[in-house]
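Students often ask why inverse folding is considered easier than folding. One informal answer: many sequences map to the same fold, so there is more than one right answer. In these notes we will look at a single instance of the problem. The structure comes first.
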């Protein structure tokens, strides 16, 4: 949650500006007035320039010094700001404005002592100074002293000049912006009932909801509510009630009855939840509130500071849902005053996160003496140290809610298959794997694994070991984040592979049944399950339930299938991951080459599966007019355009097809779009472009003159681009493929040391690409599933695929959301949409492209001046040898731009685009929405 710093600081200066001007010399007053105006426009650097000129005239003006301090503070020049405020205070030790600036500096910079006590003393000395009350309230809010700030802001309501700022701050504190409702008169008192309140409990397989004096089973159908909108992180969620109300209405229409949040959200979320649930004709939504707990850098959960902070996070979450939260703004957490009680909708409190097995193993080793826990509500008679620590957290949660509010909600921990209590012979540990690899003759460096990361069946966290006392009436539940494609044992165990549902073999259902068989005595919730509609694939599954590579309709069908599988396997329900696509997310597939990482929120990585898990999405701005329809191309000025015939006629009936008319380029937050118009585009009997006697190259250089090959393959005499080409689209042989210059490919296949007949795909380190006279072109290979071993030594080979093979969308098949090229036969054009990462554009919002590595495995980038393109057509002869220097080949029939007598392109042009630093998007349901909605309506019939 962000505080509006402009209102916080400008409000202060607006109050004091008139007072300052009385202290100025006539010569410096115009400079000061211009500086103040620039400050109010957020032009802090220009304002500071004017003030420095004024300072030369009047170096002892406290007005100039104070405004200089605010400018320097806003520019992050904390040391200079301290000097300016300090000098003003030395000139006038009683100057309230200087003391205020120093106090605010301490809050803003996090450096030095925050002098709030001094501010309180000044308030006591000047109780009627409303200017200072508003400024002090602003600082108290910034420092996280929300109740004290609210009291001061509330006292200024209705006061001329002060009321608007005070109300705006109060609305932000309480999550009431744009509501036009009365500000709460005070923070509510705790209304602790005499009798213990239990709205939900766990019983057998299900959750149960109190209905009068009776209990009724409920089946959980819901979503994980990741709040990260395009252009924002999940740690910067919306702060308006209207945004959350819109989400809740859409989620309810899906047929969901539950939302899970991963951490405390802003006050507006809880206010909106209550308003939604109290609105007639709206399906109420239950809440699962997660308490996200960090891990210790030393992987020691029993470290005293971590223990204390974890308990505080649990208490904060419980206070928030009971309308008693008072939280400062912190990175990654909501903050403000939480006065809306939603505890009657609290389905459960979920503690922790999906810890890696190596953390659990290290923690267990470091705390081997902590193998049990005895609590009032939850105990662990015997287990491992991590289980004992988690039992303590569950016990503390139940204890705090009971003692503070005399209320209980079911409690559980976040878990996932890598820590399940089952044994999987198809998954060797890393130590076992290293031994098998040595036996095969591989030379290992280092000889032992450095840490037990990616070690998915070596340690467990077993909720069946938790025991609840008779005092915990709400109960305990188990929650697993469970995807079909990882860990590998989920789809490799023979017992799982033999399981079928009504659509065929389904190892996912096999795993769900096996896990539920183990957790027979308690409700088992899929805290997260999902599948991605990304263009890229990060992991393959034997029956197509891959991590990525599904159309939106296929994604919806897979989600519906998994939803039904959970019910068939006896689970208590599930929450899909996730409600909406979140652009800040990043998977291993694209993360190393999405640079700089802090700008990932500004563009849509359609290759990344983790960015495309949602059922609600945000379309790129050009997609509708440049891809779904072609109307937008009429507004795009072609990069090259000509109206004459080809440079070489062959009189074989295909000269018109080999004639190039224009090459147009456009782009948006997700794609680079290309349109190559030819004289005539034939359609074959399969409704595909006919490349029988007309093939095409489109050359691309993402940073002209720096990378790739000058000579182009397969053409004789040689065709050259003096600036080079690091990518080449080839249209022929019934397909389109995007090839990369070998000297620009950051990945390579290397022989495995000791096993020369075997190769591994890895990043090239060092990697320093440059433009060369010749570089062959090759496919872009991705390794999705690394080589693994079973516990009996059986090897599972790696799985790879080519990112170069572009997918065709036939006319009218707009539902194929994975396609990257199509044909406009009426316009005689071939149209492409290439995801930016396919071209190793690491950040289109700042026009940065991959340049290599420096000083080790860290990739480097540079800003490009634009993307250079060219096109050529030819009549095919022998298959093109893309990796070999073209000693032979066929002549170019036509080109854009023209070729000179030596075969070099003349008048090459760059396509460039404007940078952007902010983004806003409207969303829509994905095409698979209906299938999931129908599945939600079907499941849980046995509870009704």
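Output (designed amino acids):
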């Amino acid at each position: 949650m962000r505080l509006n710093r402009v209102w916080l600081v400008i409000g202060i200066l607006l109050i004091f500006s008139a007072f300052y001007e009385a202290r100025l010399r006539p010569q410096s007053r115009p400079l000061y007035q211009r500086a103040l105006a620039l400050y109010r426009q957020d032009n802090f650097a220009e304002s500071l320039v004017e003030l420095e000129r004024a300072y030369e005239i009047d170096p002892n003006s406290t007005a100039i010094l104070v405004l200089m301090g605010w400018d320097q503070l806003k520019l992050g020049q904390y040391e200079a700001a301290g000097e300016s405020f300090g000098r003003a205070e030395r000139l006038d030790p009683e100057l309230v404005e200087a003391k205020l600036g120093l106090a605010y500096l301490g809050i803003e910079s996090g450096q030095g002592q925050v002098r709030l006590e001094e501010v309180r003393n000044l308030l006591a000395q000047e109780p009627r100074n409303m200017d200072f009350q508003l400024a002090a309230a602003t600082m108290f809010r910034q420092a996280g002293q929300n109740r004290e700030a609210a009291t001061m802001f509330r006292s200024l309501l209705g006061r001329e000049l002060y009321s608007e700022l005070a109300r705006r701050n109060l609305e932000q504190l309480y999550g009431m912006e744009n509501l036009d409702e009365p500000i709460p008169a005070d923070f509510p008192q705790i209304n602790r009932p005499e009798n213990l309140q239990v709205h939900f409990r766990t019983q057998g397989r299900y959750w149960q909801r109190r209905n009068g004096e009776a209990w009724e089973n409920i089946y959980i159908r819901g979503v994980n509510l990741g709040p990260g909108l395009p252009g924002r992180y999940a740690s910067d969620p919306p702060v308006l009630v209207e945004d959350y109300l819109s989400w809740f209405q859409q989620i309810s229409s899906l047929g969901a009855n539950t939302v899970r949040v991963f951490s405390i959200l802003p006050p507006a979320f809880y206010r909106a939840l209550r308003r939604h649930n109290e609105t007639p004709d709206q399906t109420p939504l239950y809440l699962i509130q997660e308490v996200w707990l960090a891990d210790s850098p030393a992987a020691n959960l029993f470290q005293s500071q971590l223990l204390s902070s974890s308990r505080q996070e649990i208490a904060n979450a419980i206070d928030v849902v009971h309308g008693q939260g008072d939280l400062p703004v912190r990175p990654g957490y909501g903050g403000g005053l939480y006065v809306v009680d939603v505890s009657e909708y609290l389905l459960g409190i979920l503690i922790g996160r999906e810890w890696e097995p190596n953390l659990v193993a290290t923690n267990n080793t470091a705390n081997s003496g902590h193998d049990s826990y005895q609590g009032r509500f939850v105990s662990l008679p015997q287990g491992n140290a991590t289980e004992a620590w988690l039992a303590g957290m569950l016990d503390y949660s139940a204890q705090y809610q009971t003692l503070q509010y005399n209320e209980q909600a079911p409690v559980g921990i976040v878990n996932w298959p890598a820590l399940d209590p089952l044994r999987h012979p198809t998954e060797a540990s890393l130590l076992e794997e290293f031994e098998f690899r040595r036996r095969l003759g591989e030379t290992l460096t280092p000889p032992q694994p450095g840490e037990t990361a990616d070690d998915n069946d070596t340690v467990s966290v077993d909720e069946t070991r938790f025991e609840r006392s008779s005092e915990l009436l709400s109960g305990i539940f188990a929650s697993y984040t469970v995807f079909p494609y990882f860990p590998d044992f989920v789809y490799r165990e023979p017992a799982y592979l033999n399981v079928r549902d009504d659509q065929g073999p389904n190892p996912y259902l096999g795993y769900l049944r096996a896990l539920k068989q183990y957790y027979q005595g308690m409700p088992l919730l899929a805290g997260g399950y999902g599948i991605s509609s990304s263009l890229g694939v990060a992991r393959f599954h034997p029956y197509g339930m891959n991590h990525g590579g599904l159309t939106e309709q296929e994604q919806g069908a897979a989600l519906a299938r998994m939803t039904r599988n959970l019910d068939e396997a006896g689970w208590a329900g599930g929450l899909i991951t996730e409600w909406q696509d979140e652009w800040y997310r990043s998977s291993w597939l694209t993360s190393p080459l999405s640079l700089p990482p802090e700008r990932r929120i500004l563009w849509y990585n359609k290759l990344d599966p983790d960015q495309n898990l949602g059922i609600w999405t945000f379309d790129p701005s050009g997609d509708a007019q440049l891809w779904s329809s072609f109307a937008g191309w009429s507004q795009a000025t072609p990069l090259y355009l000509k109206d004459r015939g080809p440079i070489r006629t062959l009189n074989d009936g295909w000269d018109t097809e080999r004639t190039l008319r224009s090459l147009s380029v456009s782009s948006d937050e997700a794609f680079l779009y290309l349109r190559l118009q030819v004289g005539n585009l034939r359609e074959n009997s399969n409704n595909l472009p006919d490349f029988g006697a007309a093939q095409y190259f489109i050359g691309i250089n993402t940073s002209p003159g720096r990378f790739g090959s000058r000579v182009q393959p397969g053409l004789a005499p040689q065709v050259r681009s003096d600036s080079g080409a690091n990518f080449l689209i080839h249209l022929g042989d019934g397909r389109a493929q995007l090839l990369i210059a070998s000297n620009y490919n950051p990945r390579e296949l290397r022989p495995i040391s000791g096993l020369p007949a075997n190769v591994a795909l890895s990043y090239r380190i060092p990697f320093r690409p440059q433009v060369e006279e010749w570089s062959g072109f090759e496919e872009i290979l991705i390794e999705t599933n690394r080589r693994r071993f079973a516990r009996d030594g059986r090897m599972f080979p790696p799985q790879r695929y080519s990112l170069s093979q572009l997918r065709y969308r036939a006319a009218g098949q707009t539902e194929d959301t994975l396609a990257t090229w199509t044909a406009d036969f009426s316009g005689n054009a071939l149209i492409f949409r290439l995801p930016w990462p396919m071209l190793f554009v690491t950040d289109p919002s700042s026009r940065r492209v991959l340049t290599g590595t420096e000083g080790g495995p860290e990739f480097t980038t540079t800003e490009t001046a634009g993307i250079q393109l060219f096109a050529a057509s030819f009549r095919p002869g022998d298959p093109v040898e893309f990796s070999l220097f073209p000693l032979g080949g066929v002549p170019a029939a036509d080109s854009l731009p023209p070729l000179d007598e030596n075969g070099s392109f003349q008048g090459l042009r760059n396509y460039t685009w404007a940078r952007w630093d902010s983004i806003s998007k409207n969303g829509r349901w994905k095409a698979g929405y209906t299938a999931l909605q129908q599945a939600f309506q079907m499941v849980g019939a046995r509870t009704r």
